Amino acid sequence: MMFTVIARRVPLTRLVLSRGYTSSVREGSVAQSKGFSKKEKAHEDEYARRHEAELLRKLKTEIEAKKEELARLQEKHDEVNSKQ
Fold first, then answer.
1. In this predicted model, what pLDDT tens digit does every residue of 9-24 receive, in sequence order?
2. CB of 30 within 8 A of CB of 36?
């Protein structure tokens, strides 16, 4: 059993005419001015810096907790070794 595929060509004039109805501004887009984009980028950069600073604070507290745990374990190790 064989199927035959028939392709239909769309006239070029239809494509050109349909393009004339689109606007240069996309729906849902925001202001296109340079000042707005700079301000928006500045806000995004500020958010990223604050987020990274918060992550660094969390990591530093985790490191301090691990250092304290390591010190306690080292003391226990030294006690066990000194008793032997």
1. 555 555 555 555 555 5
2. yes
Distance CA(43)–CA(30), nearest Å, equals 15
3-state secondary structure of 29: coil
What is the token pair recorded at 14? 């239809």
Q: Which two tokens stand for residue 41?
A: 């980028």
How far apart CA 36 and CA 38 sit, in angstroms, is 5
CA distance 53 to 57: 6
Chain-wide mean pLDDT for the chain? 78
Amino acid sitting at position 18: S
CA distance 40 to 50: 16
